[in-house]
Amino acid sequence: MLDEEAFLAQAKAEAEANEKKPYQINIDLIKIYPTDSFLVKIGKRMVQAVQISFVAILSFILWFLTMLAG
């Protein structure tokens, strides 16, 4: 277990590292592995397309509501 000073120093370092990062959203898409068969890869690509479309539509709705609010 870390002592209090080391814990606070680590928390401060993590907070500073997070502040330096630009704002970004990480989307967890379904993973496609090289060992997947051809049909599985096609199916996973379709799922990825649906996931990206869903995020795009949701982002547009949020943007539109924000612009509507002024």
UniProtKB/TrEMBL annotation:
UniProt keywords, alphabetically: Membrane, Transmembrane, Transmembrane helix
TM segment ranges: 49-69
Organism superkingdom: Bacteria
Keyword Transmembrane: yes
Name assigned to this protein: Uncharacterized protein
Organism name: Adhaeribacter arboris
